[in-house]
Design goal:
The protein is built from seven helices and four strands, in the order E-H-E-H-H-H-H-H-E-E-H. The protein is an alpha+beta fold and about 110 residues long. It has a single domain, classed as Glutaredoxin. Helix 1 links the parallel strand 1 and strand 2. Helix 3 packs across helix 6.
């Protein structure tokens, strides 16, 4: 079963969920706002995708952080601590395909899966 992790009002998450539905792919949705970020999953994602890719430095939440908080993110552990405290800094959607994890929505790459 595919699991999509993210925030329901995020445009990328909306596109990803719509794409899965339109292509007849069943999935479960994990809402970071309501259910939080599972620490065990976050550690796996950081290892599988790389914490640098998982951390959204282009987003509003990151840009609103003060320079000290941004500078404190220097490795996977510090990035994960920030992501647990502020889930909005996680690049979305995070998709667990069962065999691998991807970050972000890419319709062309997803189409190759099926």
């Amino acid at each position: 079963m595919i699991t999509v992790y993210g925030i329901p009002n995020c445009d990328s998450v909306k596109k990803a969920r719509a794409w899965l539905s339109q292509n007849g792919q069943p999935y479960a949705f994990h809402d970071f706002k309501k259910l939080g970020v599972p620490a065990d999953k976050l550690a796996l994602w950081a290892q599988a995708a790389g914490w640098e890719k998982l951390l959204n430095r282009q987003g509003t939440t990151w840009r609103k952080l003060d320079a000290t908080a941004q500078a404190a993110v220097t490795d996977s552990a510090s990035a994960q601590a920030l992501m647990r405290a502020q889930p909005s800094v996680i690049k979305r959607p995070v998709v667990d395909w069962g065999t691998e994890v991807t970050v972000g929505f890419d319709a062309a790459a997803w189409a190759c899966r099926f």
